[in-house]
Structures are given as structure tokens and as C-alpha cells.
Design brief:
- The protein is an alpha+beta fold.
- It has a single domain, classed as Roll (Thiol Ester Dehydrase, Chain A), CATH 3.10.129.10.
- Helices cover 25% and strands 30% of the residues.
- A five-stranded antiparallel β-sheet has the order 1-3-4-5-2.
Length: 138
């Protein structure tokens, strides 16, 4: 399942050249990922209340074309891989009038407990795993 999130580029997100600074894209990835998770009835704050943390273990980000101040961008996110120990999200960012994505990326997150030790989400939290599985295209 692909989840879509819209963002409007703010002036503070641009650099002196008037284009979005490279550091902003991972923040947008997080916003899109958070919205995707909410759509299946889970929030990151509820995961954390249940003792489930999702630290970032890998980030990939490819810049294809620039985004500029006041662009209305669409961020598509889906899950490309889900295991009891990890989850991988893929992102594509689109700009109006351009058919191909202007940015693509992925983030890999581990399922860990409050002690930051890996957990088997499927065994320890089967209902949550089932919900996340519903979002994943595997």
C-alpha cells in the first residue's frame, strides 16, 4: 500500500540558492512515514508506550531535481521489506508538473525494546506486527 503525504516547502527549508537544503528530505521522510503508520491505526507514541522503539539503522537519499520555496510536494511511502526484526520504508517525492520523482530514498529501522536490544515483533507483539504487515507489500 502506498501512502501519500503533501508538504509545502517553507522558506526556512531553502538555502541561499533558493532550493531545498539536502538535510530537509529525511525530515520529510519521517513525516510521511509517521502518516503512513497512523493510517493503519498505530502511532509512534503508542509503540513507544508499549516498549517498542524503531531506531534508524540506514538512510539512503538520492537527489534528482531540486525543490523550491512554496512547491507543493507529494511524498509517497511504502514498506518494501518487513521482518520480525526490521522494517524498510521507500520514499518517492514528486513535484507538480514533473512525472518522475525529484527525490528517492529509503530508511531501515530495527524493532527494539526500551533497552535498545532487538526484539522479535512478530512473536512479542503479534497484533501490532499484523497491522504493519497490512501496510506492507510483501
Amino acid at each position: 500500500m502506498i501512502s501519500q503525504t503533501k508538504v509545502i516547502v517553507r522558506y526556512a527549508e531553502t538555502d541561499k540558492m533558493g532550493i531545498v537544503h539536502h538535510s530537509v528530505y529525511p525530515i520529510w521522510y519521517e513525516a510521511a512515514r509517521t502518516e503512513a503508520i497512523k493510517k493503519i491505526g498505530i502511532s509512534y507514541s503508542n509503540l513507544e508506550k508499549n516498549g517498542i522503539m524503531t531506531p534508524l539503522v540506514e538512510l539512503n537519499c538520492k537527489y534528482i531535481m531540486p525543490a523550491e520555496y512554496e512547491d507543493v510536494l507529494t511524498i509517497n511511502v511504502d514498506i518494501s521489506k518487513l521482518t520480525p526484526a526490521r522494517i524498510v520504508f521507500n520514499y518517492e517525492i514528486y513535484k507538480p508538473g514533473i512525472e518522475k520523482p525529484i527525490n528517492i530514498g529509503s530508511t531501515t529501522h530495527a524493532w527494539v525494546g526500551k533497552d535498545l536490544k532487538p526484539i522479535n515483533l512478530k512473536k512479542q507483539y503479534p497484533k501490532i506486527y499484523e497491522k504493519v504487515e497490512g501496510l506492507a507489500e510483501i
